[in-house]
Amino acid sequence: MQAITFRAAAAALGVCLLVPAVRPAAQNHRYLEAAEDAARWVRAAGVRTEAGLTWPADPADPKSVGTTLYSGSPGVVLFMLELHHATKDPAYLADARAGADELVARLA
Fold first, then answer.
1. N or C terminus: fewer CB in 10 A for the chain?
2. Nearest Cα to 78, choosing from 97, 65, 64, 63?
3. Digit-coded pLDDT (tens) for 12-63
4. pTM for this structure?
5. Which H or E element spans position 64?
6. Checking phi first, is residue 78 left (phi over 0); if not, alpha (psi -120 to 50) or beta?
7. Is the Cα dihedral 2, 70, 13, 10 positive or negative?
């Protein structure tokens, strides 16, 4: 998994949450479990800031924080919002809000 950035993994799993529920419930449950596993991994790389929360593109390099949707914190914020929508777990919404607060603080 090290060859794939955690942003790409989170984005791929986030897409699973956006796909309409056309699969049997048991299969959807597996996707949700995979998304929650990815969220635990992404959350472990989170960096608290004065303004909120951000995530580096490379967990081993805290300076790799970005603001693009594909490889930056906005993608993680979107992933956390979708995961909150799917699970109703307030912790995912709190992470999304903290990430959004950090992004807003970076605006000129």
1. C
2. 97
3. 555 555 555 445 566 678 899 999 999 999 999 999 999 999 999 999 998 8
4. 0.75
5. strand 61-65
6. alpha
7. positive
DSSP for residue 55? -
Nearest residue to 40 via CA among 79, 75, 2: 79
Tokens of 83: 């995961």
Q: Cα angle at 64 between 62 and 70, to 5 degrees? A: 130
Question: In this structure, what DSSP letter does residue 49 have?
Answer: -
CA distance 66 to 34: 24
The length of the chain, given as a count of residues: 108
CA–CA separation, 66 and 56 (whole Å)? 7
Query: Which tokens in the block code for residue 24?
Result: 């049997």
